[in-house]
Design a protein that fits this description.
DUF1091, signal, 4-stranded antiparallel sheet, 9 strands, about 180 residues, Ganglioside M2 Activator Protein, Chain: A
Length: about 180
């Protein structure tokens, strides 16, 4: 199964590089918020459609996770078509390039923008982290993505005493339109 996912991701990269203008993408809405006193976080979309994410982490994180859900509108405004729903061990993600290949695809595209995001564990804190001027149209889109609106929910988690603790969460609505 893992090999199939890797092949789909590689096919998506190849297809996207050949037909880079097969989609028009736009941010529709974006909300981010802290759910813990261990972090401050905010995100904005500029008038020209660029996203910026700023966060201040008050303490180091040794066991860092993200729950990522990506769903697509079924054409009626219902986001019931789930494409990805995973809890990802970020430390393993940083150290193993083949772990979660579809998420790696998006992470690498994000890291091409101005940023100082961590790339190793433990995550250093206290520290200020940012991701600036993300242009959604520069993001790769695998060919299996339907041409509808997408909803991306990211829950940032840390593990304390074998329990997940939510640090922050973000919701992004994106318009995918096939050309």
């Amino acid at each position: 199964m893992h090999r199939i996912i890797v092949l789909i991701a590689l096919f998506g990269l190849l297809f996207d590089s050949v037909q880079a203008h097969a989609y028009e993408l736009n941010f529709l809405n974006l909300t981010y918020g802290a759910e813990s006193s261990d972090i401050e976080i905010n995100a904005t979309i500029s008038q020209n459609g660029m996203m910026t994410l700023n966060s201040f982490l008050y303490k180091p994180i040794a066991d860092y996770y993200m729950q990522v859900t990506i769903s697509f509108d079924d054409g009626t405004g219902n986001y019931g078509n789930t494409f990805i729903n995973k809890t990802i061990d970020i430390c393993k993600f940083f150290s193993t390039p083949t772990y979660e290949p579809i998420i790696q695809l998006y992470y690498k595209a994000l890291m091409k923008h101005e940023n100082n995001f961590p790339t190793i564990c433990p995550i250093v804190g206290p520290a200020y982290y940012y991701l600036r001027n993300v242009e959604i149209s520069s993001m790769p889109v695998p060919p299996i993505v339907p041409g509808n609106n997408a909803y991306v929910h990211i829950n940032y988690l840390m593990k304390e005493n074998q329990q997940f603790k939510s640090l922050a969460s973000g919701k992004v609505f994106i318009n995918f339109r096939k050309l």
